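Let us practice reading a record.
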Amino acid sequence: MEDNKKTFYQALTVLALMSVVFVGAMTVSEIKGYRFIGGGVEATNMISVSGESEVTASPDIAVISFSIREEAKKVADAQNKVDIKTKAALAAVRKLGIADKDIKTENYSSYPKYEWQEATYSCMAINCPPPQPGRQVLIGYEVSQTVTVTVRNLDTTSAIVEALGTAGVTDMQGPNFSIDKEDDLKAVARKQAIEKARAKAEVLAGDLGVSLIRVVSFSEGENYPIYARTMMSSGKADVSTPSLPEIPQGEQKITSRVTVTYEIR
């Protein structure tokens, strides 16, 4: 009789220990499942709303790019010609307040130039040798340097364009106006779009007689910057004209579109 009781108590103790281990394991699993908001809970009732916002600002920088190209029989001579013209152009923009940190060489290239020459052939004999083929002949080298200038004082933009033309620059692109810290504008547009989506969701939830519980998903479309109209320049400025070129700056617009999905109850 005593042996039966002892066996019963031992079995009961083992069962109790197994229960404790099982409950502990389940507790750890549940904690892991709820590390994130909404973890382990599937939303069955949802609504999706969209929001859009547009931010407009005046540009605060202008970018002008220009290239100098020269040819010569020797590569060193072509490089020297490019260097002289580039230094003259940069001296002109520095006088107008452009800092060295806003001057950047985007590309510098040097390559040989060839010309196809046909072989001369003249034979009066009966048994003439076959004519020789033409060949590529090195005639010189072309060197080019492309420089980008960032203008931060937009009041000097027209003067800089004219100064580059006066310095002999004949290949110029820009100015292209933009916002220096464009990401800040994008963040403002995104925040406003989210607020509009939230307001729309609250109105919709009220009409449906439900409550917003949590955000299930969020997505953002591309920001669509609309740049100001720019002037494209090519050719030497007319230094005989007393007035500076008129270059409208316009405005820049950035649009953010978001979609937010809410769980409702």
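A brief commentary: Strands lie at 46-57, 61-72, 103-117, 135-151, 171-178, 212-220, 252-264.
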